[in-house]
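Here comes my example:
=====
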Amino acid sequence: MQMRRRWVTVRAPPGWTLCTSRSMAARRVTAAELRDKCSAGACWLLRGSSVYDVSSFVKLHPGGEQLLQDRAGTDIQRDLDGPPHRHSDNALRWLQQYYVGEMEEPAPQHLRERGNRYTKKSPHYSDGIQFTTFNPEKDLVDWEKPLLWQVGHLREKYDEWVHQPVDRPIRLFQSNFVEWCSKTAWRKQWISDANSAIFVLSEYSIPVPVFFFFPLFFIGMMVWTLMEYGIHRYIFHMNPPASNYFLITLHFMLHGQHHKAPFDSSRLVFPPVPASFVIIPLYILLQVVLPPVVGLSLFVGGLFGYVTYDMTHYYLHYGSPSKGSYLAWLKSYHVRHHFEHQKTGFGITSTLWDRPFNTLIPEDAIKDY
């Protein structure tokens, strides 16, 4: 009887390479090394026989630092599959960036007692084949050069590529000065916004009765929340045609680069220079269209909403809110928007406008990342 072999073709996502035991010998990790690393404070995790060093990601983990720290040295396969949370394919690709190697021998029971052993039933791996660390040399773009002028050439591959996040900084421009203008630390942005508000209030302040100011301030703040939602949904998440180089480039500059590198701390808040091109015309428009008292009060409320939005967005990426708090839920909600539900969940400071516009991430999906 003649045996027939069945071959399966497996495609790796852009920037991710496939390897087999024939093509690449993985580094071997001993149980003693795993134990020593965890004892020294590192956070090494197991997924079956694969070992990952997630020490640099612990503080960024959407579920909180403690969840990863408590699992150091253990098999997390059960946690990845859920319940309560089934991690998305993007989350699993993200994990591969911290790949160290394979266990030389089975880890001692006390090092993996929290998890279950990796099996071939997992939907995320094929027998003998696994995704390895993100390889910028084999990506669709050249990471050694500014990315802004390259992404437009990706065409139909752009949408998939930009929504597969990586843990590395992004350079947009060749010019150091222009690049500097495109980035900012959250502290500088807060100081810049605060100074702008002080300047406006001191130079253009007018007497406004208290009972008149606060309702207008609140309305201005609420108008900003609607603008926040609209800008995020219709501009930041526009769907540029694959044939339009300009619109793809514009999308990447405005928001695509944030989805590609969601933890690039220098690009989490809107830089002062480009922000001024929006804030100044908006201020002038309000002063021309509305009475000065009304326009200025609305503008201050909107500016407060904008500052709150920028600071909240930064905190949702880098903060560690208390477990069970609203901010912890909001952080998890926003991370799901990045890693799996990019077409929904557009609210940042709240889900206020996601609800009436039917873009709220479903509750079942919230448990499915």
Remarks:
- Confidence is low (pLDDT under 50) at residues 1-14, 16-24, 112-132, 365-369.
- The beta strands are 18-19, 28-29, 44-47, 50-53, 99-103, 130-131.
- The longest strand covers residues 99-103.
